[in-house]
Amino acid sequence: MPENPTRDARRRLADVVPSVDAGRMAASLVPPRQFREASLDNYRPDPDHPSQAEAVEAVRAFAAGWGPRTGGLFRRGPKAPERPGLYLDGGFGVGKTHLLAALWSLAPARRYYGTFIEYTALVGALGYADAVRLLSGASLIAIDEFELDDPGDTMLMSRLLGELVRGGTRIAATSNTPPNALGEGRFAAADFLREIQGLADRFTTIRIGGLDYRRRDAAESAVVVPEAEVEALPDEAGTTVDDFGGLVAHLGSVHPARYVGLVDGARTVGLTAVAPLAGQTDALRFVAFVDRLYDAQARIVASGTPLDRVFGEDMLAGGYAKKYLRAISRLVAMTHAAA
Hints:
Blueprint: H1 22-27, H2 50-63, E1 85-90, H3 96-106, E2 111-115, H4 116-126, H5 128-135, E3 140-144, H6 151-166, E4 170-176, H7 187-195, E5 203-208, H8 227-231, E6 239-243, H9 244-251, H10 259-262, E7 268-274, H11 280-295, E8 299-304, H12 313-316, H13 321-338
Parallel strand pairs: 1-4, 1-5, 2-3, 3-4, 6-7, 7-8
Helix pairs in contact: 2-3, 4-5, 11-13
Protein name: Cell division protein ZapE
Pfam families: AFG1_ATPase (PF03969)
Keywords: ATP-binding, Cell cycle, Cell division, Nucleotide-binding
């Protein structure tokens, strides 16, 4: 192979057509790599925000409901809760995902962990009946970043969770309060309980306060490099180089449930000619793709428009703002990891 291969001779994500069956989808429903070792013991509550320590005890009490199957860790712990659902409500970066992953690690097998988007994509790919069959009998369904901006998806998840709870499955969920929401930590919980209707009385709501531990300087943005630097990325396993527009178009031909297969093995993702996204559909697909890259702990090297500016002002002011803000935070982190 030439010492400096052209982009056409290199591996591109746009050439990958993943095929992910139900078994692979189920196997992927585990905490992201960076949270695989999360536990209640290595969660560090902020002493300035007592609700964080209280949340740890609430999760410990919820885990006590599995009794001896957790290895007897909670024989002297708090009394197990009567409700089969736990909802962790709070702002960005207060440790909700860490606590959710810690709870998942304490649950007996079978157990599943995924984002709201991953579960709705699973239902879309398998069909409702097959998704119910796949998830039925699980000890825990952990849902990170429960979304409330799509009534159809929210009602779908409400119906699905209702069936699973009736079968004995317990549910734990988190959601982010948008940064501009007044009374941080209050409205998200109210919206959540209202939208899931019949499930509301099954959840114990825990509000977690605190500052975003990942918060960056407001002036910091995604790293941009010259296109030649992207093209010069080494031709090796785990490294890809794509034209941004071509990759976005390819995402439209792959079901979001299969994005996990699209990024399988990705370590460094090169993107050339990054430009603002033209429409909401492409933007939401890109958000789902960014989530999978972030879970894979991939790095991004990009040229063109900074990746934190690909979502237009109208998008950031609309109903999906929370998704775009989360994606921006992750894009900034992944480009800085590469730099």
